[in-house]
Amino acid sequence: xxxxxxxxxxxxxxxxxxxxxxLGASGAEARDLGPRAPGAFDYYxxxxxxxxxxxxxxxxxxxxxxxxxxxxxxxLWPQMEGGDYxxxxxxxxxxxxxxxxxxxxxxxxxxxxxxxxxxGTCSGLAPDGYFQLSSKDVAAVTIxxxxxxxxxxxxxxxxxxxxxxxxxxxxxxxxxxxVNSRNGTVTEVDICVTKAGAFKACS
Length: 203
Hints:
Layout: H1 2-29, E1 32-34, E2 43-50, H2 51-57, H3 62-65, E3 71-79, E4 85-86, H4 96-102, H5 112-118, H6 127-139, H7 158-168, E5 177-182, E6 185-193
Parallel strand pairs: 1-4
Antiparallel strand pairs: 2-3, 2-6, 5-6
């Protein structure tokens, strides 16, 4: 029985490692396709910045990094099967009221001025609908308790981070999460979700 348990654990570890390697390769090959018809995409990538790592590896964000908050919304990005993505699909600009209302869902409220024209316009949704969906998708992800306190995480922490997210979020699969790092420091977790917000495998 003990041997079977060890073999099962080894198999799970192997599957997880293969999934992580596959995601890393697909992420490296992703291409910006430029404008496409709004709504003509397959799924979303929900990008959550790990602010302690982001702030440790990036300059020019003094206001955002004065008090890092842990995992925070970077963006909700329309994605194509295969990993490529549309961008800057055209559409209405944001009103001052929308910037004021929805800017705070991001770590830095000024991000809204980048995220809407580049990614939101490709969603096929009006601005309010896109930001509502972004907020809903973030709220649907349970942040593992171990990663609610600010800390610098390293590349060798990635398997543990992945396992923690999988354990905390029923329905999330190893192929549906990617932990990104810069210069050996973890900066972001990307989670693939359907247009309706259900967890799915990335492609």
